[in-house]
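Changelog note: in this version the structure field was regenerated for every chain. One regenerated record is shown below for reference.
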Amino acid sequence: MPARLHTLWRVTKEQERARAKRRYERQQANLVRQEAERKRNAQVAAVVVALLAVIGGFILLAGKLGKDDKSAGASSSSTSAAPASLAAGCTAPPAVPNTEGKLSAPSADEVSAVTGKTVVAQLETNCGTIELTLDGAKAPKTVASFVQLAQVGYWKDAPCHRLTVQGIFVLQCGDPTGGGSGNPGYGYGIENPPADGTYPRGTVAMARTDDPNSNGGQYFIVYKDSDLPTDGGGYSIFGTVTAGMDIVDKIAAGGVGTDGVAPALPISTLSVTTETKG
């Protein structure tokens, strides 16, 4: 090969290699740029997802606070939004106060004040007045506790949170939390339980847990003769319904609501007053 041609060929090959190198470098640069863009997009996406999660959390929190505020506001009002159905003669029940008691059991003097005496209690409900006659001779501690809770307004706006319609027929009331676990802050033992476990219609007795000393603020009204277990000591009978049993009957006739526990036709205690007789 002539020297000049050899030189030209060498130059051409070097130029081609240079061009190939430049192409390769451009390709690599493009790959690097694309990878950087991919990473940047991934980072942006991650940031967006994180922001959405934070925003969603704020929205959820705001929603919860809004519900709490609404509930708190409603509890100070006389009524809440009307439920789907009400028993005849009933008004919409107030919002559940959802309060826990922080009281002490009645003193010996307070128990003595009702011992051997009759106490008449007026339960003002959103469905009318239910009158109870309480027996201070047979259940003085229970009656003294009932009088105390009435005087401090413990049951204001408290719903009757439980209705039983099979085997045992009772309407259970007296829990300001509305959930069935509230108490006034104290408990006491069983008084005047029927030995045979028979609770006639119109009986007013205390509800409790398995602990025989857990009588507190929850009570039940028997709307149909019932037999309750005597294991553990039975339940304290402390009074009878002497007026307004028709109100209990129409609530019971409505059956149980969708939760399977509370009455379908709501009833709440607006206030309770008591008068001790000689």
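Spot check on this record: The two ends are 141 Å apart (CA to CA). Residues 1-76 form one domain.
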